[in-house]
Amino acid sequence: MVELDVRDSKIFDVICDNARVPFTDIAKATKISKDSVKSRIDSLVKKNFILSFTPVIDYNKIGYKMFHAFIKLNTSLDQEELFLKNAISNGNVVAVTKVIGGCDYELQVLARDVIDEYRILDKLFTSFKKGITDLRVLTIINYYKYTMNIKKSSKRSFSKNVIKNKPFKVDSKDLAILKELFDNCRESLVSISEKVDLSPELVRYRIKSLINSGVIKSFHARINKNFLGLTTYLFLLDIEGEINNKDLQFFNSTSNIYHSRNTLGNWNLNIGFCAGNNNELFDTIYKIRKNFGDRLNRFDLLVPLHRYKFSPIPDGLIL
């Protein structure tokens, strides 16, 4: 467990949901010297408290949709390992996570549309169809909240409106820049420019265009929540009616909820939250159920155990 002192906490509060902010601005906001800020951030990365500095992107803007496949297996360990190997190596799979609850694995898959998604999953599962006892697929429609600051109520939220599917034309250079930003979105313009063979000015312009077009929604410092003594939970809900302003206020005021997403499929709301013990877990579930009341038809609770793959710009993403 990592203990953050007052200065580390101040620095993290600045960068958690604004990860590209310059060291100079962090120093001004925290009243800590620039050199000390840099040293402390490097230390948090070395301790593995900060896992990465990464953007959140809207795949709809580049002509793709994000699908979450929840899979229940009933097969031998050898077959499960082969399934895992195939999922990790698949060029359209963004993330592979081992979970416990109503299923065994969650796969995040990028596809052009539902037909493309079924083609990808069918190819992936061809050798394991008899071993898959349950498969449920969700399509991400919109984010209501996404934050890495799990200590405070969030002021950062996204529109509750369904994403307008207005694609932004990205080329190979934009994709190369996005890959560099996913590796480390705090990387300097000069460093990125050397890797993508563009001038720093052009890199700056393209990043600004990706932000203004809505392709890049935000930049975050991804943290290892286990290092704070927290367990991550995924709460999948089927609710009646639309998300309203009261719901949005609830998401943003509940500090241990770090994401809430509108989905299509077996569940239409996906909430990620953290808890330090069983009392916090039960209290959070109670608050969520109380907020939705009779609108809540059913829910499932999953616990992510281990992420085997996280590749936000996978090899199969074709422009």
Give your account of this protein's structure:
This protein is α+β, with helices and mostly antiparallel strands and about 325 residues long. The protein has four domains: about 5-45; about 60-140, Alpha-Beta Plaits (2-Layer Sandwich); about 140-160 and about 225-305, Lrp/AsnC effector binding domain/regulation of amino acid metabolism (RAM) domain (Alpha-Beta Plaits); about 170-210, Orthogonal Bundle (Arc Repressor Mutant, subunit A), CATH 1.10.10.10. The chain is about 35% helix and about 30% strand. Strand 8 and strand 9 form a beta hairpin. Helix 6 crosses helix 7 (about 190-195).
Helix content: 25-40%
Walk across the major sheet and give the strand order. Answer: 2-4-3-10-7-9-8-5
Q: Identify the CATH homologous superfamily of the largest domain.
A: Lrp/AsnC effector binding domain/regulation of amino acid metabolism (RAM) domain
What structural category characterises the helix and strand content? Answer: alpha+beta
The coarse silhouette is globular
Give the total of beta strands: 10
CATH second-level architecture of the largest domain:
2-Layer Sandwich
User: Please, how many domains?
Assistant: 4
The average pLDDT is: 91
How much strand content do the residues show?
Answer: 25-35%
Q: CATH topology of the largest domain, what is it called?
A: Alpha-Beta Plaits
Compute the separation of the termini in Å.
42 Å
| Radius of gyration from the alpha-carbon trace, in angstroms | 20 Å
Task: Please give the structural blueprint.
Layout lengths: L5 H10 L7 H8 L3 H13 L3 E8 L7 E9 L3 H13 L3 E8 L4 E7 L2 H12 L6 E15 L25 H12 L5 H8 L3 H13 L3 E8 L7 E9 L5 H9 L3 E8 L4 E7 L2 H15 L3 E15 L9
Antiparallel strand pairs: 1-6, 2-4, 2-5, 3-4, 3-10, 5-8, 7-9, 7-10, 8-9
Helix pairs in contact: 1-2, 2-3, 6-7, 7-8
